Amino acid sequence: MFKILSRFLLKVSLGILSSLVVSPVLAAEQITFNYPPFGEFYISIQDLETFALEGKITPSFAYYAQKVTPQELTKLRELLNKPFPVNADEVYNFFRTEIGQEVLAQVIKIINSPPDESKPALKGALITAAEDPKGLTIINVLRQYSLPNIRVNLPTVINTVNSADEFFNQTDRVFSWLDQQSVSQSSVKLPTPIEKLTQPGQVTWRQESVTVNRPNQEPIIAQVYIPNNLNKPAPVIVVAPGLNSDIGAFGYVAKHLASHGFGIIAIDFPQTDAQRIWQELAGLDTIPKPNAWLQQPLDVTSVLNAVELKVKSDAAWKGKLDLTNVGMLGQSLGGYTSLGIGGSQTAWSNVTKACQTLADPYQLTFNPALIWQCRGVNGIPPIENMQDERIKAVIAVNPVTNPIFDQQSMGSMKTPLMMISGSADIFAPAIPEQIRPFTWLTQSDKYLVLINNSTHLSFLEGTNDLPAIIVGPAPDLAHKYLQVLSLAFFNTYLNNQTEFKAYLEPSALSSISQKPLQMYILRSLTPDQLTEAIKTKN
Questions:
Q1: Cα separations (Å) of 138 from 130, 394, 428?
Q2: Which domains does the chain have, with CATH numbers?
């Protein structure tokens, strides 16, 4: 949800909202479940709220609390109190989308009541809880549920607590582990102070556009920044925005890199840009067919071919850009695009297997990135290998990677790679989409940058209209980080300026890392280390 989407969402007044969603007249009083062969049991929501908010176990709740381990109780309390950074109008509009309907269908699995009864009650409770100043939490949703009795499926609830712990709480434990692992690093000698990497370079550029006409589809338009007065062709960096975003979101980093002598090709993907998603939310269009995004690496290749043709045929372009030496910088869906064109092959069988969980009545799927990928499970599989040999280095910011890539396909990628991940990303969550896939990489030139409190939107420009809880803290600091990381990384692997590798060392980055966005960089992480980190006590 980026700038143009936010404007649409924020125009929906709560007055209109209240006329469409009836506020609950009654409040839920108890949760009921069946535990064969012992019969039916119930838990007072007041008791549950006391446990969630105060950590106290009332006498009536003690009967249930003693049946589980202290660790399971901790997981339950964390889950009940977990805040979700959305407001009421965003929740309302989200449920109008196909993906929102699927998310609602997932949550409904918990409730053992007819869908025509439980669905409107749950939807109303979610919206009303999101309107609460305390924020949307599960305990708030329970309190706002409009029917007095919430009948639940016990096996589904048990599975949900465990999977929700993985989705929502394990990332916090990983960052606690990183804090415990942090030791004073030996200083490295830097060519210049690292702060200078945030300053504009001396190179000027001109801007051109290239249009690629795809058969029977909307054309792709790319903005090309061509450096002036260089003594040799400039290496090129392709900027690939994410779903519901456009090239303006990374204008600050594109201009920064151009000022340091890189050619830039910034691509708008018409079927997944902000305008298309705005129209879908307004009921004027539909979310594009799945292969519109699955094939985006091939779209990048088509744009590179078109720019290469201009360099060869147009005197004003000749000798300006080196199309044999190209980097990729992509975010979210653009991160998937960057990995695909950089050499990670798609794993369609892995997608179809993972998507079976959506139909499992005893298992909830919390990952929006998985739900998005599963929309195409009955479509035509993508081409397995979409690598373009011109791509020499990749930065993937909050990328969508799992299950479209698996351990084998990530392990086969040889292109130097930096993945950037945020602990507060709820759209492409850190552990399943970045941290665990990073453990599958086998090449030596790999970096995992973990930023505490960073969200899916932290690195995007033009998010001022969005609530701070969605954008996350200190976006200007996140932008500064990306300027430093991208300039150091691409100078190292495209310009072969190995002295810039020093800026990617933990001791160098720690000098600019600061709260609330504490930054860590890892050169390796094994599956065993990740398991150890997940077990860390906060």
A1: 10, 38, 21
A2: 3-152 (no CATH), 194-534 (3.40.50.1820)
